[in-house]
């Protein structure tokens, strides 16, 4: 595996991040971009960076020819022929992905492996379009790549154990932790954010908090809050993801009307200057609280507590609920999902350890108490088996 050559299809935001990891690893890389001029320009810039790095003593000058040969950009798919693994990271267009993957499959050796970085399309469905689906699967990085340390390996229906092992080793070569999950619908780690983000939006609709208040509360237990995360991801994109998630998984959540309003008003997030926050000189500021409120909302009763401890409990238990639900569905393991969400939002404590410390009965009682007040989104019945399997508290 050491020194194997990886092909990369696409050099957009995610592609550039993946290439930066490849360039810092023992792996070689060939990057395909459609435009010959862009490929030539990227090669010139890479050549200059390597020369500056050698001159600056970042690596011995005698290694320069070897490093120059290790990384290159091309607009000719035939140059991917020597690759042992090719990762697709083009725009989320199913037909385009299939077209490129089929062309690459005809170029590389039969023993080569193919992967998709997509979080929207099922590796099983994509693999069904290929000649060798057993050598294909999901290899999903998270944005921003440099701030996350996990790679989600999504096992399609026909993905072979050998393919999974190659993906695991590749993740380790990139100094990333591999998390293996069964293909269901979209990225399982992204699904874990569903309850957290919806609960935060419900709090805003009910007038219980402002975005900055929610970030302050979550900041006591995690690095990244739901409002900052949504504004970074983009509200339009997340709205589409949430629609698919609520259709595919048995969450008992209402689609937040505030999210529809934000998208309708063109408030797409940080890069649009407005999202949940209004950005002034690149600083996030709360809008008028009246903007967030939804007088017709039915998810939060008027007598619901809005002290920091109560709001924090609701947010954290939604994180736990997502982990328990995906474990119940046998998409992955409790420990892997806990590690994944801990890495994504920077939780200060591992959820699996906390839940085992609480024990299944105490956790069930907490969910039942919240379900009595907020309704079925906290109902423990869909996660009963996994709750029962938790260790008793010490």
UniProtKB/TrEMBL annotation:
<dbReference type="GO" id="GO:0070403">
    <property type="term" value="F:NAD+ binding"/>
</dbReference>
<dbReference type="InterPro" id="IPR006176">
    <property type="entry name" value="3-OHacyl-CoA_DH_NAD-bd"/>
</dbReference>
<dbReference type="GO" id="GO:0016616">
    <property type="term" value="F:oxidoreductase activity, acting on the CH-OH group of donors, NAD or NADP as acceptor"/>
</dbReference>
<protein>
    <submittedName>
        <fullName>3-hydroxyacyl-CoA dehydrogenase family protein</fullName>
    </submittedName>
</protein>
<dbReference type="Pfam" id="PF00725">
    <property type="entry name" value="3HCDH"/>
</dbReference>
<feature type="region of interest" description="Disordered">
    <location>
        <begin position="289"/>
        <end position="309"/>
    </location>
</feature>
<keyword id="KW-0560">Oxidoreductase</keyword>
<dbReference type="InterPro" id="IPR036291">
    <property type="entry name" value="NAD(P)-bd_dom_sf"/>
</dbReference>
<feature type="domain" description="3-hydroxyacyl-CoA dehydrogenase NAD binding">
    <location>
        <begin position="6"/>
        <end position="183"/>
    </location>
</feature>
<dbReference type="InterPro" id="IPR008927">
    <property type="entry name" value="6-PGluconate_DH-like_C_sf"/>
</dbReference>
<dbReference type="GO" id="GO:0006631">
    <property type="term" value="P:fatty acid metabolic process"/>
</dbReference>
<dbReference type="InterPro" id="IPR006108">
    <property type="entry name" value="3HC_DH_C"/>
</dbReference>
<dbReference type="Pfam" id="PF02737">
    <property type="entry name" value="3HCDH_N"/>
</dbReference>
<feature type="domain" description="3-hydroxyacyl-CoA dehydrogenase C-terminal">
    <location>
        <begin position="189"/>
        <end position="278"/>
    </location>
</feature>
């Amino acid at each position: 595996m050491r020194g194997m050559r990886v092909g990369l299809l696409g050099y957009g935001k995610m592609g550039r991040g993946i290439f930066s990891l490849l360039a810092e690893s023992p792996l070689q890389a060939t990057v395909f971009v459609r435009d010959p001029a862009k490929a030539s320009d990227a090669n010139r810039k890479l050549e200059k960076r390597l020369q500056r790095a050698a001159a600056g003593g970042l690596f011995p000058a005698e290694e320069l020819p070897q490093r120059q040969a290790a990384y290159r950009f091309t607009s000719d798919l035939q140059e991917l022929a020597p690759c042992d693994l090719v990762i697709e990271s083009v725009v989320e267009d199913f037909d385009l992905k299939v077209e490129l993957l089929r062309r690459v499959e005809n170029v590389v050796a039969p023993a080569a492996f193919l992967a998709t970085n997509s979080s929207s399309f099922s590796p099983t469905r994509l693999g069904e379009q290929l000649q060798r689906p057993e050598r294909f699967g999901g290899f999903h990085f998270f944005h921003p790549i440099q701030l996350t340390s996990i790679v989600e390996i999504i096992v399609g229906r026909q993905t072979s154990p050998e393919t999974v092992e190659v993906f695991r080793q590749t993740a380790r070569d990139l100094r990333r932790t591999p998390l293996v999950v069964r293909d269901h619908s979209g990225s399982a780690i992204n699904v874990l954010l569903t309850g957290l983000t919806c609960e935060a939006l419900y709090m805003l609709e009910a007038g219980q908090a402002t975005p900055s208040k929610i970030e302050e509360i979550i900041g006591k237990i995690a690095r990244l809050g739901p409002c900052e995360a949504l504004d970074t991801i983009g509200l339009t994109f997340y709205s589409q993801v949430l629609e698919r998630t609520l259709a595919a998984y048995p969450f008992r959540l209402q689609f937040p009307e505030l999210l529809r309003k934000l998208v309708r008003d063109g408030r797409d997030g940080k890069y649009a200057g407005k999202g949940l926050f209004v950005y002034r000189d690149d600083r996030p500021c709360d809008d008028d609280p009246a903007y967030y409120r939804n007088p017709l909302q039915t998810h939060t009763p008027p007598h619901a507590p809005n002290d920091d401890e109560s709001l924090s409990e609701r947010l954290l238990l939604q994180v736990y609920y997502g982990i328990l639900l995906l474990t119940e569905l046998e998409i992955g393991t409790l420990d892997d999902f806990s590690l994944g969400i801990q890495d994504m939002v920077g939780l200060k404590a591992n959820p699996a350890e906390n839940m085992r410390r609480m024990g299944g009965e105490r956790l069930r009682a907490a969910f039942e108490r919240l379900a009595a007040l907020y309704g079925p989104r906290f109902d423990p019945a869909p996660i009963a088996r996994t709750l029962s399997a938790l260790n008793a508290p010490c």
